[in-house]
Amino acid sequence: MLNKDRARRGLMLILSGPSGAGKTVLSRKLLSEYADMELSVSATTRKPRPGEVDGEHYHFIDEDTFREMAKNNAFLEWAEVFGAYYGTPRAAVEEALSEGRDVLFDIDWQGAQQLKQSAASDLVKVFVLPPSLKELEARLRKRDQDSNGVIEDRMSRARDEISHWGEYHYVIVNEDVEHSMNDLRAILAAERRLRKRQPWLNDFVRNLIRPF
């Protein structure tokens, strides 16, 4: 039976990679499999799109509120994208980590760099690669959602994104989703057991070696 006094600290799991590499599929599988993992919900100043729910897809706030939060260091990372602001609220993430829950981030290399500056010790960074650029383009076309121009732009961006693979702790070549999930399970199992994420160990070991 699990000793509840031996609670671990949660971790921040980042999945990055080019569009079409399979991050979204892997993220959904992780969230459905691990009850103690939750998706980071960003705050944004853009308007909700049809079907988006406040607090589930994003926290929709006005620009003045966002600027005030940024000024007060209330974001772990934030950026302006196409005229709207996006940021990761600090309080919700820190609460989850302190309660032993993991937080999943589907962000690019720039967001990962910002998180490294604010929470490096909690980060586990995984880069997801496609098996080839040819396969990546085939996946993008299979979606049948974008024009040729958009796909060409995504392919150009993919090369830039891939160039940052060396900044990550782990790299997964996503040829097969289930094999990639096995890799992620192994990464999580090891990272969750790191000494720094077992705050109870200090007292436990001290009691083991104390004189009788």
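Second entry:
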Amino acid sequence: MSKAVTEQMTDLKTLETTLLAEIAAAGDEASLEAVRVAALGKKGSVSERLKMLGSMSPDERQVMGPAINGLKNRVGEALAARKAELRDAAIAARLAAEAVDVTLPVRQSPAERGRIHPISQVIDEIAAIFGDLGFAIAEGPDIETDHYNFTALNFPEGHPAREMHDTFFFPPDANGERKVLRTHTSPVQIRTMEAQKPPIRIVIPGKTYRQDSDATHSPMFHQLEGLVIDRTANVANMKWVLEEFCKAFFEVPSVNMRFRPSYFPFTEPSLEVDIQCDRSRPGEVRFGEGNDWMEILGCGMVHPNVLRYGGLDPDEYQGFAWGMGIDRIATLKYGMPDLRDYFNADIRWLQHYGFRPLDMPTLFGGLST
């Protein structure tokens, strides 16, 4: 072996020692890639020595060729091994940083954790039932005029419902007129009659306001009104509609209902409706069975004066209407003892009594499943 070959072999050993040390010292993949390019890249230290083989004699090439290619293979293997080490170390560090305590309960998704308020649920149930019966949903403003809230509904001057102790009045305007927070959803009946020709079949869920507050009353509460106007609408139709609603809402096969004479300014005749129930179990009411009766709603045939205020001829059209408290029927169905809890915004109460947001009530799928 010539002196030149001996020197080149010594140079290769030195280069190999240097490259292996640099590979071992690389702390991340970026640093390791820099070492690879410096060694095996197009102008790398090992690549440059491979280019020198063409200028060597056959005897020198016979010795140096395997030596340089061997160095290239060993450097490549060292690079691959170090790269695998760095990847394993990165995975281990990420696992340590993102460790999960498997002893903790799995967090629910927002769709599972969220809850629909019972009032919203009951309004959806009402819409599903009356929608199946061919009714449309109607809405109106919460702030009403005296005309729509009282006069057009046949409340005479001096009626107790107009007094300050029942109604939230606004300060008088420039004309001396005072608007009110509506005391019932009945003004929507007048607005609908003015805007739509019969036949009319609507239900009106919405907020109403009266100055009253205790365990069974709230200054703001929710009410449901229904209105049917046609040429042949009668008490028998009304009785059937209310029976079908109560059976569907309380999810019982049959109900017994008792209609008692009463008085409302906007209906004539006026009736109070009781529903048969069983209250023998403390804190529980069951409908469709038992020997007790519970008042649940008021109804009647629309007063001719109300039809006139709505722009309809009472000699040509007649109709029936009913009203009930949504908060009250929600309480009866789902057993919530205090009406004030509806408005306390207590997340624990809502988690207990609320409904899953994706379980929309339908007649074919179930109202309260």
